[in-house]
Design brief:
By secondary structure, the protein is mainly beta. The protein is 1% helix and 16% strand. The protein has a domain of 114 residues. It contains 1 helix and 15 strands. The longest helix is centred in the last third of the chain and has 4 residues.
């Protein structure tokens, strides 16, 4: 047998060159598995199979909200994850708590049977108290009660009294009297336990015994489980943290994993209160934390950082990933002004 050798010129392989071994169009620097043509940036991802087909670092977190399928109750919705901000009555369990989305106060009764779904003491079958409210949701107020009952002189008619008391055998507040006391200034209708605290006015508006100076309380560090959180301070001891280190914002307890992702942003809405960013959620929490957060559009997986006053307009700005949001940051949904550092300004958030 005669073997014929083709006259083919052989070239040595330079192992120092960047190569595309699987010939999928992506070299070994860009390809996370250069031995498999089905794996490369832009490939179709097969979720939860243990393989990162598109080389983006995600195989078990489809919505990229920072929680994998084992923790996330809806891994196709980046607004649903443990500790997310809950929107009540929309049929979606955003915070993955498993609670009834139509039972906000967790008293076991949902609307419309619950006539006040923000107060667990108000529900069908609840005991009535003499306060001018319908606790048991039967359409009647203060029925079946026996006295004596105490009422409080209410000069400013804000619903809270102080000073002179009146005792009656009938549960019906006389003219000029209120069911509740606790008014710290009965000559000012804007000051009562239900009033909103006004920043830096030197007045105790909500009658809690504190006239706070808004912003950072000097010397107090935000702590969680008795451990300090680097770079964070207490913003308002009554709202942002309790003595046991549990963090509360607008009545919702933050999970430890969320607290560790909080960032002090300064005052990004220019109202005198310090504000926080929640990385991994795309949220800015505006002090004094009475309202739902501002959503930074498209930033649910990004780290949020203070940017200072980049555009020199006197307002603090916010950086989320590579997107810049010019202050003042307000509103429910905010679009980035600049998507890459140094790019031309695209417009003010709105």
């Amino acid at each position: 047998m005669i073997l014929l050798l083709a006259c083919t010129e052989l070239h040595p392989v330079d192992l120092g060159e960047v190569q595309d071994r699987d010939l999928d169009g992506y070299d070994e620097n860009a390809d996370c598995d250069d031995r498999d043509q089905e794996i490369h940036p832009g490939a179709e991802e097969v979720w939860y199979d243990g393989v990162d087909q598109d080389c983006d670092g995600h195989d078990d977190d489809q919505d990229r909200d920072g929680y994998d399928r084992a923790e996330d109750c809806d891994d196709r919705n980046d607004d649903a994850y443990p500790g997310a901000w809950e929107t009540w009555y929309d049929g979606i369990d955003q915070d993955c708590s498993g609670d009834d989305d139509h039972d906000q106060d967790g008293d076991g009764w949902s609307v419309p049977d619950d006539c006040d779904d923000t107060d667990a003491g108000v529900r069908p079958g609840a005991p009535e108290t003499c306060d001018g409210r319908d606790q048991d949701c039967d359409g009647s107020i203060d029925e079946g009660l026996t006295g004596p009952f105490t009422f409080y002189e209410d000069v400013d008619e804000d619903g809270y009294g102080s000073g002179r008391e009146l005792v009656s055998s009938t549960c019906e507040a006389p003219d000029g009297y209120a069911y509740s006391g606790g008014d710290c200034n009965d000559g000012d209708e804007d000051r009562s336990p239900d009033a909103e605290e006004i920043c830096d006015n030197g007045v105790d508006d909500d009658c809690d015994g504190i006239a706070p100076e808004c912003g950072v309380v000097a010397g107090e560090v935000l702590v969680v489980d008795s451990e300090p959180v680097d770079g964070l301070v207490w913003l308002d001891g009554a709202r942002i943290a309790t003595a046991d280190g549990v963090v509360h914002i607008d009545g919702r307890v933050l999970a430890r994993t969320e607290v560790e992702r909080l960032v002090d942003l300064g005052d990004v809405d220019d109202d005198g209160w310090r504000d926080l960013g929640l990385s991994g959620a795309g949220h800015v929490l505006l002090g004094p934390f009475d309202d739902e957060p501002v959503e930074l559009l498209g930033q649910t997986s990004q780290t949020i950082r203070p940017a200072g006053d980049v555009d020199g307009d006197g307002f603090d700005d916010v950086l989320a990933g590579d997107s810049l949001f010019y202050g003042p940051v307000t509103g429910g949904l905010t679009r980035p002004d600049v998507r890459r550092p140094g790019a031309r300004r695209a417009g003010h958030p709105g």
